[in-house]
Design goal:
The protein has 469 residues and is an alpha+beta fold. It folds into 2 domains: 96 residues, no CATH class; 264 residues, no CATH class. The protein is built from 8 helices and 21 strands. The longest helix is centred in the N-terminal third of the chain and has 43 residues. The termini are far apart.
């Protein structure tokens, strides 16, 4: 029995020997971790915040925020009270009222404004005159068209007349005009074609193309830049062209063509029975084509039709030219006018064809003799278009403000009493002008009312001033 006990004790001691070292290792690891933590705390310079400390800091932050809000409200109330005192002190005798940027000013308002293209806001021009003030050399290049007589004879000169547009004929090879300056191919028609080619076509494009077909010669209508504002209003352009007579010369050989100059042509019938070619742009049935990647604006086609009836045969329109609204230029295909309006454009060499006069004759006769579906004279219809940026200022005069005048006649000169006894307790003035001043009280602009506006203690005024840029 004794030996058995010893074995048990020995076994128990053996167990102690086995489990004792494990407990020691666990304790050592715990001590090491605490040492590392103490080392980290020592390096950080701060000990972890206790829950009570964090709550104290949060409470202090909330208190600071509450104090900041209280002080901000206090300052705001002081400013409002100061402004109100100044307003009340000055309302009866103020000269200036400062605009409130939030409620009195509406900036950067944009709108598209259109108006009649021709002088005096005329949208349908029916009278056309050439200018006799052009030199003979200038007339070989173009004709300038006015809305009244522009003669060198002073007694027969319309002082109200002004230039509307110019008409020119161009040929890529220089045909239809004689050489200038003794140089071969230095002709006005070639110069005109090259000029508009450089203005309207891409750099590598040498000829105007109408409905997929190149043309060697063109008619150009160039509108006065001052009239078109920013651009022509596409969809509101109509050009009416009367058919011309082809009776000069008696045949269609080259001799007839050379003799069919602008000074010889006439309308086919010099009455309202003369057929006419009506042309509009196709902006209502197709999108614009960008010219030189948008740098020169947009381009549309000129096709048969009218503003009233729209494009003729819109599925397969008849093409007669191109329009560049942003440039204010219309290019007409001379081949199309020859075929549909009997222009017989002179294309002979070394001959002054005076072709520009043909287009003038066709347009002017249409304006004088022809009518549209509404019975109006045909001529030429066009509108200008521009984007206007405006700022609206709302000028407010309450019942207690601006009821007195600095005009010396408002009071007597001796004692400062009202000149009119009825003004006592109830003065009356009339607002006629609004002045716009800067911060230095320098007058920048003034707005006149259409009629004087009565102002008194029983009347208030709200006046909107619109400044366009």
């Amino acid at each position: 029995m004794a030996s058995i006990k010893r074995n048990r004790l020995s076994y128990a001691g053996s167990k102690m020997a086995i489990f004792g070292p494990r407990n020691i290792g666990r304790n050592i690891r715990r001590s090491a971790n605490r040492a590392v933590q103490r080392s980290q705390i020592s390096r950080g310079g701060e000990s972890p915040l206790q829950p009570d400390s964090a709550r104290n800091i949060a409470q202090q932050a909330r208190a600071r925020n509450i104090e900041i809000e209280r002080r901000a409200r206090q300052i705001a109330n002081q400013l409002i009270a100061q402004r109100e005192r100044a307003r009340l002190a000055a309302r009866n005798g103020r000269i200036f009222t400062e605009f409130d940027a939030d409620t009195d000013i509406i900036p950067n308002q944009q709108e598209i404004v259109t108006k009649g293209l021709f002088p005096n806001n005329v949208g349908n021009q029916t009278t056309f005159y050439t200018s006799s003030r052009l030199t003979s050399t200038q007339k070989r290049y173009y004709q300038e068209i006015w809305n009244g007589k522009n003669n060198t004879n002073v007694s027969n000169f319309d002082v109200t007349a002004s230039s509307m547009f110019s008409i020119a004929y161009g040929h890529s090879g220089g045909s239809g005009s004689a050489d200038e300056g003794g140089q071969v191919n230095d002709t006005p028609t070639r110069a005109i074609y090259s000029q508009y080619r450089l203005l309207c076509l891409e750099p590598n494009d040498k000829k105007f193309t109408f409905n997929g077909k190149d043309s060697d010669h063109i008619y150009a209508i160039n509108y006065n830049r001052a009239l078109i504002k920013e651009r022509l209003d596409e969809g509101n352009i109509e050009i009416n062209i009367s058919h011309l007579s082809g009776s000069v010369g008696g045949g269609k050989d080259s001799a007839f063509n050379n003799a069919h100059t602008g000074s010889h042509v006439r309308p086919l019938y010099q009455t309202s029975d003369c057929p006419q070619l009506r042309l509009v742009d196709d902006s209502k049935i197709t999108s614009a084509i960008s010219v030189r990647r948008g740098h020169f604006g947009r381009r549309y086609n000129i096709v048969s039709g009218s503003i009233e009836a729209g494009v003729y045969q819109s599925a397969t329109p008849h093409h007669f030219g191109l329009i560049y609204p942003d440039l204010g230029i219309v290019i007409l295909n001379a081949d199309g006018l020859n075929a549909s309006a009997s222009f017989s454009s002179v294309t002979g060499s070394e001959v002054s064809g005076d072709n520009a006069m043909k287009l003038f004759t066709a347009i002017s006769h249409s304006g004088a003799q022809m009518t549209d579906l509404s019975g109006d004279q045909s001529g030429m219809q066009a509108r200008s278009s521009e984007k206007v940026t405006s700022t609206h200022y709302f000028v407010r005069a309450t019942n207690a403000e601006y009821n007195f005048s600095n005009n010396p006649t408002f009071v007597t000169g001796s004692n400062g009493r009202f000149a009119q006894a009825s003004f006592i307790g109830d003065p009356k003035v009339y607002i006629t002008t609004i002045g716009m001043y800067n911060d230095r009280r320098e007058l920048l602009a003034s707005a006149k009312l259409s009629q004087p506006l009565l102002k008194s203690f029983t009347r208030e005024a709200l006046i909107k001033v619109k400044l366009d840029f």
